[in-house]
Amino acid sequence: xxxxxxxxxxxxxxxxxxxxxxxxxxxxxxxxxxxxxxxxxxxxxxxxxxxxxxxxxxxxxxxxxxxxxxxxxxxxxxxxxxxxxxxxxxxxxxxxxxxxxxxxxxxxxx
Length: 110
Known about the structure:
- By secondary structure, the protein is of the alpha+beta class.
- Helices cover 35% and strands 19% of the residues.
């Protein structure tokens, strides 16, 4: 089972953090263990992880989010896309993220 840890900035209630929730739920449904940590709410998770602490010492909290895959840095500064999660998990038939919109094949409206 792959482990994905997401170390988020203190104010992670912005749109990208909200949008990635569905993709992380998808990853969990496809066998990944997902852990999310917020810098303001769980500071010990940051200081207690040598990889994360080293990253923060070098780059600062402005470089968050930091994504670890099986304990190693996989990405920093942004959240992963569904395609990147698919690649990391080795899933071959990933369904695209649900997109809200017209449900009549583009024939809605006047």
